[in-house]
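Fresh eyes needed here. Have a critical look at this protein's tokenised backbone.
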Amino acid sequence: MGKIADRALEIAEEKFIASSGPGGQNVNKVATAVQLRVDVFALGMPPDAFERLKEIAGSKLTKAGEIVLTANEYRTQEQNREAARERLVALLGEALTPPRKRARSRVNRVGKVKRLKAKKARGEVKAKRGKVSRKDW
């Protein structure tokens, strides 16, 4: 884990709320779902990573700059807490990883000729479409 992910887990606020997931009658009695809140500005992320995080997080990022993650897929608080933390680390890891540059494809001479020939043939097909005049009958 990186420095920023560690910092995020340190400052994350956990709140346990009633879950709507599995658990039967237990759901009505115990607050097993976890809501994790992290202030993004307190993490000190690089600007480009912050922009990627805004894009990736989408509706999970509030206007106040907090990421809000809710986990309620498990029956216990501990499992839901771990799930929320793992999701947070994955989200930050994805934002901190810069996108790979696209390598230009290299086409050989035969490939170029073949492509141009196909374009020419397609152009001829399209050129034959259109209005038909009386003299073409």
Observations:
- The two ends are 75 Å apart (CA to CA).
- The mean pLDDT is 82.
- Strands lie at 13-17, 33-39, 66-71.
